[in-house]
Design brief:
4 strands, 4-stranded antiparallel beta sheet, 54% helix
Length: 185
């Protein structure tokens, strides 16, 4: 309830760009040891598509290692839907979709509410899904979006803009962000 009130108050008092900056700054980020090889590749080639190809290969291999006996059907969904750090490029925008935090729970869910619960990585939001009558604005999801913002900025060495496209807090089945690349990338 406190978080819901805080986000509502933030929306009343702070403009959208500042809210995004504040919340993205709270995100979990990949360690520098994960970012450096990608940054080195990009600095060497300045080829965004080569970067994305290598990054996607690495992501899929890490996913296979982390998720014991990941069914091929689930992996196919992750790849086909462009879930993960690399996303899909649409001009000067990278559209990224988070992967489910609990893949067995997500893919085995009986309904949308259960699927959203298993999808979300945030324990605070998971608790809200179990509380009757408590809602939190999707603005809160910019915290999770900061993961992608930080990763992309550190890899390409330039600031990116982030916008929320879909959120489980808004009733969607996934959380999705648009990463607006700077000119010349």
């Amino acid at each position: 309830m406190w978080t819901s009130a805080a986000i509502t108050r933030m929306e009343e008092l702070i403009d959208e760009d500042d809210r995004i900056e504040i919340l993205t700054g709270c995100a979990h980020v990949l360690p520098e040891s994960s970012i450096k090889p990608l940054r080195d590749l990009y600095e060497r080639t300045h080829d965004l598509e080569e970067l994305r190809r290598v990054w996607q290969e690495r992501f899929v291999e890490e996913l296979k290692r982390r998720c014991d006996s990941l069914p091929q059907e689930w992996l196919d969904t992750v790849v086909r839907e462009h879930w993960g750090e690399v996303g899909v490029r649409k001009g000067d925008v990278i559209v990224v979709t988070k992967i489910p935090e609990n893949m067995p729970g997500y893919f085995g869910a009986r309904d949308g509410d259960e699927r959203r619960y298993h999808y979300c990585h945030c324990s605070r939001i998971k608790a809200v899904f179990r509380m009757e009558g408590v809602r939190i604005s999707p603005t809160y999801c910019y915290c999770g979006g900061g993961f992608y913002k930080s990763n992309w900025e550190r890899v390409i060495g330039k600031e990116v803009k982030l916008r929320l496209l879909k959120s489980v807090l808004g009733g969607d089945q996934v959380c999705q962000f648009a990463i607006h690349l700077p000119e010349g990338i």
